[in-house]
Amino acid sequence: MAKNDAYTTQMQMVAELEMEMMSDMYRRMTDACEQKCIPTHYHEGDLTKGESVCLDRCVAKYLDVHEKLGKVLTNMSQQDEKAIQQLQ
């Protein structure tokens, strides 16, 4: 039963870390895309078409890079895990 509790605790920690990382990624993406696409002085209450298109593209690129980077890091982690298992 102790192993099951430890596993549950570990999975909760992983879930919390993942939420924290996603929140950080969202914050950084929002800051970067807002700075790039929305001027500091604006005259309209709504986004212009150009601003909206810029934001769409910025977010799409940011998420694409995040996904590709995640795949690379997962692959590296799996390779490291295999190497550690071979050493044991």
UniProtKB/TrEMBL annotation:
Its main location: mitochondrion. Keywords: Chaperone, Disulfide bond, Membrane, Metal-binding, Mitochondrion, Mitochondrion inner membrane, Protein transport, Translocation, Transport, Zinc. Mitochondrial intermembrane chaperone that participates in the import and insertion of some multi-pass transmembrane proteins into the mitochondrial inner membrane. Also required for the transfer of beta-barrel precursors from the TOM complex to the sorting and assembly machinery (SAM complex) of the outer membrane. Acts as a chaperone-like protein that protects the hydrophobic precursors from aggregation and guide them through the mitochondrial intermembrane space. Mitochondrial intermembrane chaperone that participates in the import and insertion of multi-pass transmembrane proteins into the mitochondrial inner membrane. May also be required for the transfer of beta-barrel precursors from the TOM complex to the sorting and assembly machinery (SAM complex) of the outer membrane. Acts as a chaperone-like protein that protects the hydrophobic precursors from aggregation and guide them through the mitochondrial intermembrane space. It comes from the Eukaryota. Residues 11-74 form the Tim10-like domain. Belongs to the small Tim family. It comes from Panagrolaimus superbus. GO terms for molecular function: metal ion binding. One of its GO terms (cellular component) is mitochondrial inner membrane. It is a peripheral membrane protein. This is Mitochondrial import inner membrane translocase subunit. It is found in: Mitochondrion inner membrane. It holds the Pfam family zf-Tim10_DDP. The keyword Thylakoid does not apply. Heterohexamer; composed of 3 copies of tim-9/tin-9.1 and 3 copies of tim-10/tin-10, named soluble 70 kDa complex. The complex associates with the tim-22 component of the TIM22 complex. Interacts with multi-pass transmembrane proteins in transit. GO terms for biological process: protein insertion into mitochondrial inner membrane; protein transport. The twin CX3C motif contains 4 conserved Cys residues that form 2 disulfide bonds in the mitochondrial intermembrane space.
